[in-house]
Write a structure and sequence with these properties.
Helix content is about 40%, strand content about 25%. By secondary structure, the protein is α+β, with helices and mostly antiparallel strands. The longest helix has 15 residues. About 25% of the residues are buried.
Length: about 180
């Protein structure tokens, strides 16, 4: 089931995203910019509820949410959140906890998060199999395809995360 969800911000604009029935281990990552300049990054299974909570809390303290961005749903959302936190920590200063940052431009954080290919791979959703097994097969097929002469290209974050899950020799790895 797909639903277009709109979440109003204080200035009359709205964050709109496609809410779908999530598969096993799927979720979203998001970026929120508060009026004071703080940027918050995180992950959620229900970003509408999460961002609505930030809007309400900001209002309690006389602030507001200026902008919010939500990724498409994907399985690697936990790993993507970690990589996005690392990206922010290297470029800004931690404001609170580990997910709130000062000194970052909202647009650059969204651009970094948006560089990932969030396309939902058919193997993960049409084949009735465990996500880890599907990931192993995806990497096996990628290695067979790339077995020719090496080509210098930049791998996506999703590819790096999936490749880290599967040992190069095809041996079984421990799944979570």
């Amino acid at each position: 089931m797909t639903e277009i969800v709109s979440l109003p911000l204080d200035d009359g604009r709205a964050v709109t995203f496609e809410k779908v029935k999530l598969g096993r281990n799927e979720g979203y990552i998001y970026v929120v910019q508060f009026a004071g300049g703080v940027v918050k990054v995180g992950k959620s299974n229900d970003p509408r509820l999460r961002i609505r909570t930030y809007i309400q809390h900001a209002r309690l303290y006389g602030g507001s949410v200026l902008n919010a961005w939500i990724s498409p749903p994907h399985e690697a959302f936990g790993a993507m959140e970690t990589l996005l936190i690392e990206y922010c920590a290297k470029r800004g200063q931690v404001a609170c906890g580990r997910e709130y940052f000062n000194g970052l431009e909202y647009g650059s954080v969204v651009a970094a998060a948006g560089r990932v290919n969030y396309q939902r791979t058919e193997q993960f959703y049409d084949v009735r199999t465990m996500p880890f097994a599907a990931a192993k097969e995806f990497i096996r097929q990628r290695r067979v395809r790339d077995a020719g002469p090496p080509v210098e290209r930049k791998r996506s974050v999703v590819e790096r995360v999936l490749e880290a899950m599967v040992p190069p020799d095809g041996a079984n790895a421990v799944s979570a």
